[in-house]
Every structure is written in C-alpha cells, then in structure tokens.
Amino acid sequence: MNESPAPLPPGPDSTRVDRWLWAVRLVKTRADAAQACRGGHVRVNDRPAKPASPVKPGDEVRVRLHGTTRIVEVGHVIEKRVSAPVAVRCYADNTPEAPPEASLPVIRRDRGAGRPTKRDRRVLDRLRTDFPPPV
After folding, report:
1. Which pLDDT score, from 0 to 100, does residue 48 have?
2. Cα–chain-centroid distance for residue 108?
3. Nearest 5°: phi and psi at 17?
4. Percent helix, strand and coil across the chain, each to the nearest 5
5. What is the torsional sign of CA 82, 93, 67, 54?
6. pTM
7. What is the pLDDT, as a whole number, of residue 132?
8. Nearest-CA neighbor of 108 among 117, 116, 100, 97?
C-alpha cells in the first residue's frame, strides 16, 4: 500500500527554542532543553540561544548533547510533542557524518597477569610501532 504521509500539524510562525527542541524529540524533556540552552550548548543561526530565543522555519539550530553536536535546519515549527515519524519531518538533519573509527588491534593483557615483563614490553612496543595511532 502506497500511503502518503500524514500532514504536519499546524503551528505558529515561530516558537521558543527549548519548546521546539522538545517537540521534535531532540531532547527528552523541556527542562533538558532549557538546561542545554542555559549551559551554552544550543546555538540558533550561530548565536548562543537562551531558552526563550525564537526559532522559525529556515533557522539553523546546533545542539550539543551527550558529546555529539547535531546541526538541524528548522523546516516546520511545532509547539506540542508529536510522534517520532512526524517529528523527523519538521527538521532537516545537516549533521556531518562522524569519521570512521580506526580499526587497530587492541592490546589486552589477562586480568591478574601482573606487571609486564621486559620481554612483554618489547613485544608491546613493537606492536605499537607497527600500527601507529590514528591522527
């Protein structure tokens, strides 16, 4: 069945950034959104945002959460929390792709094996020079 997506709920021309972040499910609670704004982790159009800063369609919002920065463009303004499939359609995610993790062999010792011997250290040093750390 080829169903068209449900229309987006009507919304105002602009709304508070903390309310919008919560409504489109970028943060779990509105209090978390306000806290992120007060902590300097939210920027609207490359300016630090207070919780009451307005957002409107076309604005770029940068949110730093849990060690990652999300860059989204406001596509539709909503004030009430909506389902996840609808929320995703209210913004365009412009977050750059994370660089792939280098797959180097992980050097592990058995638990309780004690301090490495001189021979063990030489083997470890040889391994480290064969596989230099990623830059």
Report:
1. 95
2. 31
3. -65, -40
4. 25, 20, 55
5. negative
6. 0.71
7. 64
8. 116
3, HSE (Cβ side, Cα atoms, 13 Å): 4
- Tokens of residue 74, six digits: 């406001």
Element (H, E) at 84: helix 84-88
Q: How many helices (H) and strands (E) does the chain have?
A: 4, 7
Cα–Cα–Cα angle for 124, 126, 128, nearest 5°? 70
Q: Along the chain (135 residues), what's the average pLDDT of each consecutive run of 10 residues?
A: 73 93 95 95 95 95 92 94 92 87 68 87 82 62
In whole angstroms, give the CA distance from residue 89 to residue 93.
Answer: 10
Total number of residues shown for the chain: 135
Chain center to CA of 104: 25
pLDDT at 102: 60
Measured distance CA(77)–CA(57) in Å, rounded: 6
